[in-house]
Specification:
The chain is α+β, with helices and mostly antiparallel strands. The protein is built from 9 helices and 18 strands. It is 23% helix and 36% strand. Strands 8, 11, 12, 13, 14, 15, 16, 17 and 18 form a 9-stranded antiparallel sheet that branches. The protein binds heme C (HEC).
Length: 343
Protein backbone atom coordinates (compact mmCIF):
# COMPACT_ATOMS: atom_id res chain seq x y z
CA UNK A 1 0.00 0.00 0.00
CA UNK A 2 2.69 2.48 1.00
CA UNK A 3 4.37 1.64 -2.29
CA UNK A 4 1.23 2.67 -4.13
CA UNK A 5 1.06 6.05 -2.32
CA UNK A 6 4.72 6.67 -3.02
CA UNK A 7 3.98 5.94 -6.67
CA UNK A 8 1.16 8.50 -6.80
CA UNK A 9 3.35 11.07 -5.07
CA UNK A 10 6.20 10.50 -7.47
CA UNK A 11 3.83 10.77 -10.43
CA UNK A 12 2.34 14.04 -9.20
CA UNK A 13 5.78 15.54 -8.58
CA UNK A 14 6.80 14.54 -12.09
CA UNK A 15 3.62 16.01 -13.57
CA UNK A 16 4.06 19.29 -11.70
CA UNK A 17 7.35 19.70 -13.45
CA UNK A 18 6.14 19.20 -17.02
CA UNK A 19 5.79 22.01 -19.50
CA UNK A 20 2.05 21.32 -19.55
CA UNK A 21 1.81 22.39 -15.93
CA UNK A 22 4.06 25.39 -16.30
CA UNK A 23 2.08 26.64 -19.29
CA UNK A 24 -1.27 26.12 -17.65
CA UNK A 25 -2.11 29.72 -16.78
CA UNK A 26 0.30 31.27 -19.22
CA UNK A 27 0.51 31.40 -22.98
CA UNK A 28 1.90 28.83 -25.41
CA UNK A 29 5.60 29.33 -26.08
CA UNK A 30 8.11 28.35 -28.77
CA UNK A 31 9.25 25.12 -27.08
CA UNK A 32 8.62 22.13 -29.42
CA UNK A 33 6.30 20.50 -26.83
CA UNK A 34 4.23 23.66 -26.51
CA UNK A 35 3.93 24.07 -30.28
CA UNK A 36 2.82 20.45 -30.59
CA UNK A 37 0.10 21.07 -27.99
CA UNK A 38 -0.97 24.20 -29.89
CA UNK A 39 -1.30 22.19 -33.13
CA UNK A 40 -3.38 19.61 -31.30
CA UNK A 41 -5.63 22.25 -29.69
CA UNK A 42 -6.16 24.06 -33.02
CA UNK A 43 -7.45 20.91 -34.71
CA UNK A 44 -9.37 19.63 -31.66
CA UNK A 45 -11.18 22.74 -30.47
CA UNK A 46 -10.14 25.84 -32.44
CA UNK A 47 -13.03 28.18 -33.25
CA UNK A 48 -12.11 30.17 -36.39
CA UNK A 49 -15.18 32.42 -36.20
CA UNK A 50 -14.21 33.54 -32.70
CA UNK A 51 -10.66 33.94 -34.06
CA UNK A 52 -11.96 36.34 -36.70
CA UNK A 53 -13.38 38.60 -33.99
CA UNK A 54 -9.97 38.63 -32.28
CA UNK A 55 -8.27 39.50 -35.58
CA UNK A 56 -10.67 42.44 -36.03
CA UNK A 57 -10.51 43.62 -32.42
CA UNK A 58 -8.76 46.99 -32.44
CA UNK A 59 -8.04 47.17 -28.71
CA UNK A 60 -6.25 43.98 -27.68
CA UNK A 61 -4.91 41.93 -30.59
CA UNK A 62 -4.92 44.85 -33.07
CA UNK A 63 -4.03 42.60 -36.03
CA UNK A 64 -6.32 44.47 -38.46
CA UNK A 65 -4.87 47.82 -37.33
CA UNK A 66 -1.70 46.79 -39.20
CA UNK A 67 -2.51 43.91 -41.57
CA UNK A 68 -4.92 43.38 -44.41
CA UNK A 69 -6.70 40.10 -45.02
CA UNK A 70 -9.29 39.72 -47.80
CA UNK A 71 -9.05 43.48 -48.32
CA UNK A 72 -10.03 44.33 -44.70
CA UNK A 73 -7.53 46.11 -42.45
CA UNK A 74 -4.74 48.67 -42.58
CA UNK A 75 -1.51 49.20 -44.52
CA UNK A 76 1.23 49.08 -41.86
CA UNK A 77 2.36 45.44 -41.95
CA UNK A 78 2.31 43.10 -44.95
CA UNK A 79 -0.96 41.88 -46.43
CA UNK A 80 -1.43 38.36 -45.02
CA UNK A 81 -3.39 36.54 -47.74
CA UNK A 82 -0.44 35.02 -49.60
CA UNK A 83 1.85 34.32 -46.62
CA UNK A 84 -0.76 32.56 -44.42
CA UNK A 85 -1.49 30.12 -47.20
CA UNK A 86 2.15 28.98 -47.18
CA UNK A 87 2.77 29.05 -43.39
CA UNK A 88 2.31 26.05 -41.11
CA UNK A 89 0.67 26.39 -37.68
CA UNK A 90 4.15 26.35 -36.14
CA UNK A 91 5.44 29.08 -38.42
CA UNK A 92 2.40 31.26 -37.71
CA UNK A 93 2.82 30.71 -33.96
CA UNK A 94 6.50 31.66 -34.18
CA UNK A 95 5.69 34.82 -36.17
CA UNK A 96 3.22 35.84 -33.44
CA UNK A 97 5.22 34.82 -30.36
CA UNK A 98 8.57 36.19 -31.55
CA UNK A 99 8.00 38.69 -34.41
CA UNK A 100 11.62 39.83 -34.42
CA UNK A 101 13.17 36.40 -35.03
CA UNK A 102 12.43 36.45 -38.75
CA UNK A 103 11.38 39.70 -40.39
CA UNK A 104 9.18 39.57 -43.48
CA UNK A 105 11.16 40.88 -46.46
CA UNK A 106 10.69 44.59 -47.11
CA UNK A 107 9.19 45.16 -43.65
CA UNK A 108 12.33 45.78 -41.63
CA UNK A 109 12.20 48.61 -39.10
CA UNK A 110 14.59 51.52 -39.60
CA UNK A 111 15.75 53.88 -36.87
CA UNK A 112 16.94 57.32 -37.93
CA UNK A 113 18.71 59.92 -35.80
CA UNK A 114 17.92 63.39 -37.11
CA UNK A 115 20.41 66.26 -37.03
CA UNK A 116 18.20 67.99 -34.42
CA UNK A 117 18.68 64.99 -32.11
CA UNK A 118 15.22 63.48 -32.58
CA UNK A 119 14.99 59.72 -33.13
CA UNK A 120 12.30 58.36 -35.42
CA UNK A 121 11.67 54.79 -36.44
CA UNK A 122 9.38 52.87 -38.70
CA UNK A 123 9.10 51.00 -41.97
CA UNK A 124 10.87 52.54 -44.94
CA UNK A 125 7.98 53.19 -47.32
CA UNK A 126 10.00 55.00 -49.92
CA UNK A 127 13.26 56.81 -50.49
CA UNK A 128 13.27 59.23 -53.40
CA UNK A 129 14.64 62.61 -54.41
CA UNK A 130 16.62 63.05 -51.22
CA UNK A 131 13.63 62.27 -49.01
CA UNK A 132 12.78 59.35 -46.81
CA UNK A 133 9.25 58.28 -45.85
CA UNK A 134 8.95 56.29 -42.60
CA UNK A 135 5.70 54.74 -41.31
CA UNK A 136 5.30 54.02 -37.59
CA UNK A 137 3.27 51.30 -35.85
CA UNK A 138 0.18 53.53 -35.75
CA UNK A 139 0.29 54.01 -39.51
CA UNK A 140 1.53 57.60 -39.22
CA UNK A 141 3.91 58.65 -42.02
CA UNK A 142 6.86 61.01 -41.51
CA UNK A 143 8.71 62.53 -44.46
CA UNK A 144 12.31 63.51 -43.66
CA UNK A 145 14.82 65.15 -46.00
CA UNK A 146 17.98 63.01 -46.20
CA UNK A 147 20.01 66.10 -45.34
CA UNK A 148 18.35 66.14 -41.90
CA UNK A 149 19.33 62.55 -41.12
CA UNK A 150 22.56 62.15 -39.20
CA UNK A 151 22.47 58.36 -39.10
CA UNK A 152 20.12 55.59 -40.16
CA UNK A 153 20.21 51.93 -39.15
CA UNK A 154 18.18 48.83 -39.83
CA UNK A 155 16.74 47.73 -36.50
CA UNK A 156 16.67 44.04 -35.50
CA UNK A 157 13.27 44.60 -33.84
CA UNK A 158 9.98 44.05 -35.69
CA UNK A 159 7.45 46.85 -35.74
CA UNK A 160 4.98 44.16 -34.66
CA UNK A 161 4.77 44.15 -30.85
CA UNK A 162 5.56 40.77 -29.26
CA UNK A 163 3.37 41.55 -26.25
CA UNK A 164 0.10 41.43 -28.24
CA UNK A 165 -0.19 37.69 -27.77
CA UNK A 166 0.46 37.80 -24.03
CA UNK A 167 -2.79 39.78 -23.72
CA UNK A 168 -4.82 36.90 -25.17
CA UNK A 169 -6.06 33.95 -23.17
CA UNK A 170 -4.71 30.54 -24.17
CA UNK A 171 -8.07 29.65 -25.75
CA UNK A 172 -8.20 32.87 -27.73
CA UNK A 173 -4.70 32.24 -29.08
CA UNK A 174 -5.90 28.80 -30.25
CA UNK A 175 -8.94 30.47 -31.87
CA UNK A 176 -6.83 33.17 -33.55
CA UNK A 177 -4.41 30.61 -35.04
CA UNK A 178 -7.42 28.50 -36.21
CA UNK A 179 -8.74 31.56 -38.02
CA UNK A 180 -5.36 32.28 -39.61
CA UNK A 181 -5.35 28.69 -40.96
CA UNK A 182 -8.98 28.73 -42.16
CA UNK A 183 -9.46 30.18 -45.68
CA UNK A 184 -13.22 29.61 -45.32
CA UNK A 185 -13.45 31.76 -42.16
CA UNK A 186 -11.18 34.37 -43.77
CA UNK A 187 -13.36 34.66 -46.86
CA UNK A 188 -16.22 35.82 -44.62
CA UNK A 189 -14.20 39.03 -44.12
CA UNK A 190 -14.60 39.87 -47.77
CA UNK A 191 -18.00 41.48 -47.53
CA UNK A 192 -17.20 43.65 -44.51
CA UNK A 193 -16.40 47.29 -44.11
CA UNK A 194 -13.71 47.32 -41.39
CA UNK A 195 -13.21 51.09 -41.29
CA UNK A 196 -15.11 54.12 -42.57
CA UNK A 197 -14.83 57.92 -42.63
CA UNK A 198 -16.95 59.94 -40.21
CA UNK A 199 -17.79 63.64 -40.33
CA UNK A 200 -20.23 65.83 -38.43
CA UNK A 201 -22.12 67.14 -36.58
CA UNK A 202 -24.99 68.12 -38.87
CA UNK A 203 -28.63 68.98 -38.26
CA UNK A 204 -30.76 66.15 -36.92
CA UNK A 205 -33.08 66.45 -39.95
CA UNK A 206 -31.46 63.66 -41.97
CA UNK A 207 -33.65 64.15 -45.06
CA UNK A 208 -32.24 67.60 -45.75
CA UNK A 209 -29.24 67.07 -48.09
CA UNK A 210 -25.91 68.75 -47.26
CA UNK A 211 -23.60 70.04 -50.04
CA UNK A 212 -21.00 67.30 -49.36
CA UNK A 213 -23.43 64.66 -50.65
CA UNK A 214 -22.56 65.64 -54.24
CA UNK A 215 -18.92 64.62 -53.96
CA UNK A 216 -17.91 63.26 -50.54
CA UNK A 217 -14.11 63.13 -50.20
CA UNK A 218 -12.17 62.54 -46.95
CA UNK A 219 -9.24 64.52 -48.37
CA UNK A 220 -11.41 67.66 -48.40
CA UNK A 221 -13.06 69.57 -45.57
CA UNK A 222 -16.86 69.38 -45.41
CA UNK A 223 -19.05 72.40 -44.81
CA UNK A 224 -21.55 72.10 -41.96
CA UNK A 225 -25.05 73.60 -42.12
CA UNK A 226 -23.86 76.28 -39.69
CA UNK A 227 -21.03 77.24 -42.09
CA UNK A 228 -18.24 75.55 -40.12
CA UNK A 229 -15.51 73.47 -41.76
CA UNK A 230 -15.41 69.83 -40.68
CA UNK A 231 -12.70 67.17 -41.10
CA UNK A 232 -13.26 63.51 -41.89
CA UNK A 233 -11.97 60.98 -39.37
CA UNK A 234 -11.26 57.30 -40.02
CA UNK A 235 -13.05 55.08 -37.50
CA UNK A 236 -12.95 51.29 -37.06
CA UNK A 237 -15.93 48.99 -36.85
CA UNK A 238 -16.29 47.00 -33.65
CA UNK A 239 -15.68 43.26 -33.96
CA UNK A 240 -19.46 42.78 -34.45
CA UNK A 241 -19.11 44.90 -37.62
CA UNK A 242 -21.00 47.93 -36.31
CA UNK A 243 -19.73 51.53 -36.26
CA UNK A 244 -20.65 53.46 -33.13
CA UNK A 245 -21.19 57.21 -33.40
CA UNK A 246 -19.44 59.06 -30.55
CA UNK A 247 -17.01 61.93 -30.04
CA UNK A 248 -17.00 65.53 -31.27
CA UNK A 249 -18.15 64.55 -34.80
CA UNK A 250 -21.23 62.81 -33.42
CA UNK A 251 -22.70 64.48 -30.32
CA UNK A 252 -26.29 63.75 -29.22
CA UNK A 253 -29.09 65.72 -30.93
CA UNK A 254 -27.25 65.74 -34.25
CA UNK A 255 -26.57 63.53 -37.26
CA UNK A 256 -23.33 62.53 -39.00
CA UNK A 257 -22.12 61.04 -42.27
CA UNK A 258 -20.26 57.73 -42.66
CA UNK A 259 -18.40 57.12 -45.91
CA UNK A 260 -16.93 54.04 -47.58
CA UNK A 261 -16.54 52.59 -51.07
CA UNK A 262 -17.66 49.49 -52.87
CA UNK A 263 -15.55 48.20 -55.72
CA UNK A 264 -17.38 46.31 -58.41
CA UNK A 265 -15.86 44.40 -61.33
CA UNK A 266 -18.75 45.35 -63.62
CA UNK A 267 -22.14 47.02 -63.84
CA UNK A 268 -24.37 44.84 -61.70
CA UNK A 269 -26.90 44.41 -58.92
CA UNK A 270 -25.70 43.68 -55.39
CA UNK A 271 -27.29 43.30 -51.99
CA UNK A 272 -26.23 45.35 -48.97
CA UNK A 273 -27.21 44.09 -45.52
CA UNK A 274 -27.87 47.04 -43.24
CA UNK A 275 -28.07 47.29 -39.45
CA UNK A 276 -29.00 50.58 -37.84
CA UNK A 277 -30.14 51.52 -34.35
CA UNK A 278 -31.80 54.81 -35.42
CA UNK A 279 -32.91 56.64 -38.57
CA UNK A 280 -30.59 56.61 -41.60
CA UNK A 281 -30.51 57.76 -45.20
CA UNK A 282 -28.20 55.84 -47.57
CA UNK A 283 -26.79 57.28 -50.79
CA UNK A 284 -25.11 55.21 -53.49
CA UNK A 285 -23.13 57.38 -55.93
CA UNK A 286 -24.87 60.47 -54.49
CA UNK A 287 -28.42 59.17 -55.03
CA UNK A 288 -30.63 58.33 -52.04
CA UNK A 289 -31.51 54.63 -52.25
CA UNK A 290 -32.87 54.01 -48.73
CA UNK A 291 -34.56 56.05 -46.01
CA UNK A 292 -35.82 55.00 -42.63
CA UNK A 293 -36.71 57.02 -39.55
CA UNK A 294 -36.40 54.04 -37.20
CA UNK A 295 -33.83 51.31 -36.52
CA UNK A 296 -33.72 48.02 -38.38
CA UNK A 297 -31.77 44.74 -38.12
CA UNK A 298 -30.44 42.81 -41.12
CA UNK A 299 -32.31 44.91 -43.65
CA UNK A 300 -31.82 43.65 -47.21
CA UNK A 301 -31.09 46.48 -49.65
CA UNK A 302 -30.66 45.67 -53.35
CA UNK A 303 -28.59 48.32 -55.16
CA UNK A 304 -27.30 48.97 -58.66
CA UNK A 305 -23.53 49.41 -59.11
CA UNK A 306 -21.33 50.91 -61.78
CA UNK A 307 -17.97 49.31 -62.65
CA UNK A 308 -15.08 50.50 -60.45
CA UNK A 309 -15.50 52.41 -57.18
CA UNK A 310 -19.02 53.21 -55.94
CA UNK A 311 -19.55 55.71 -53.12
CA UNK A 312 -21.59 54.46 -50.16
CA UNK A 313 -22.53 57.45 -47.99
CA UNK A 314 -24.83 57.16 -44.97
CA UNK A 315 -26.45 59.95 -42.98
CA UNK A 316 -27.01 58.58 -39.49
CA UNK A 317 -29.37 60.17 -36.97
CA UNK A 318 -27.87 60.44 -33.51
CA UNK A 319 -30.60 61.97 -31.31
CA UNK A 320 -29.60 60.15 -28.12
CA UNK A 321 -25.89 59.69 -28.96
CA UNK A 322 -24.12 56.35 -29.50
CA UNK A 323 -26.12 55.31 -32.59
CA UNK A 324 -24.77 52.27 -34.40
CA UNK A 325 -24.63 51.49 -38.12
CA UNK A 326 -23.30 48.47 -39.98
CA UNK A 327 -23.17 47.34 -43.58
CA UNK A 328 -21.95 44.15 -45.22
CA UNK A 329 -22.23 42.27 -48.49
CA UNK A 330 -22.86 38.65 -49.20
CA UNK A 331 -19.30 37.48 -49.93
CA UNK A 332 -18.98 37.46 -53.70
CA UNK A 333 -16.11 37.50 -56.16
CA UNK A 334 -15.80 40.87 -57.86
CA UNK A 335 -17.25 42.95 -55.00
CA UNK A 336 -15.33 44.55 -52.13
CA UNK A 337 -16.10 47.17 -49.45
CA UNK A 338 -13.22 49.42 -48.38
CA UNK A 339 -12.41 52.70 -46.67
CA UNK A 340 -9.71 53.32 -49.31
CA UNK A 341 -10.45 53.93 -52.95
CA UNK A 342 -6.92 53.37 -54.27
CA UNK A 343 -6.33 49.71 -53.33
C1 LIG B 1 1.95 47.59 -35.08
C2 LIG B 1 1.66 46.85 -36.27
C3 LIG B 1 1.37 45.34 -36.19
C4 LIG B 1 0.42 44.69 -35.42
C5 LIG B 1 -0.52 45.29 -34.40
C6 LIG B 1 0.48 43.31 -35.82
N1 LIG B 1 1.46 43.12 -36.77
FE1 LIG B 1 1.93 41.36 -37.68
N2 LIG B 1 3.51 42.28 -38.59
C7 LIG B 1 3.77 43.64 -38.59
C8 LIG B 1 4.95 43.90 -39.39
C9 LIG B 1 5.59 45.28 -39.63
C10 LIG B 1 5.38 42.66 -39.89
C11 LIG B 1 6.61 42.42 -40.78
C12 LIG B 1 7.86 42.30 -39.95
C13 LIG B 1 7.94 40.96 -39.30
O1 LIG B 1 7.98 39.95 -40.01
O2 LIG B 1 7.92 40.91 -38.05
C14 LIG B 1 4.45 41.65 -39.37
C15 LIG B 1 4.51 40.27 -39.64
C16 LIG B 1 3.49 39.37 -39.38
C17 LIG B 1 3.43 38.00 -39.88
C18 LIG B 1 4.48 37.32 -40.75
C19 LIG B 1 4.16 37.63 -42.20
C20 LIG B 1 5.15 37.09 -43.18
O3 LIG B 1 4.90 37.32 -44.39
O4 LIG B 1 6.15 36.49 -42.78
C21 LIG B 1 2.25 37.46 -39.43
C22 LIG B 1 1.72 36.05 -39.70
C23 LIG B 1 1.58 38.47 -38.65
N3 LIG B 1 2.37 39.62 -38.64
C24 LIG B 1 0.36 38.32 -38.04
C25 LIG B 1 -0.19 39.24 -37.11
C26 LIG B 1 -1.34 38.97 -36.27
C27 LIG B 1 -2.18 37.69 -36.31
C28 LIG B 1 -1.52 40.07 -35.48
C29 LIG B 1 -2.54 40.27 -34.37
C30 LIG B 1 -2.31 39.44 -33.20
C31 LIG B 1 -0.48 41.04 -35.85
N4 LIG B 1 0.31 40.48 -36.82
C32 LIG B 1 -0.35 42.31 -35.29
C33 LIG B 1 3.04 44.61 -37.93
C34 LIG B 1 2.02 44.35 -37.02
Amino acid sequence: MSNHIAGILAASILLAGTADEREKDGQFDREPGSLARLEEAVSARGNPDRGREIFLDTRDAQCSSCHRLQGVGAHVGPSLDASLEKMTIREIAEALLAPSRKLAEGYETYTAARTDGKIISGLKIRETGGELLLRDGLGKDTLVPRSEIARIEKSPVSLMPARLISRLSREDFVNLVSFLKSPVAQRKLRGRLGAAWLTGPFSRVINKPEPLEKNPDPAKVALSGAGKFLQWKLISARSDGLFRLTGPAAPPKSSSYLLGWLKSDKEREAVLWIDHSTGVRILVNSKTVYKSSVGSRKHRLPIRLQPGWNTILTRVANAAGGSTFGVHLDPSAGLRLSAYRQE
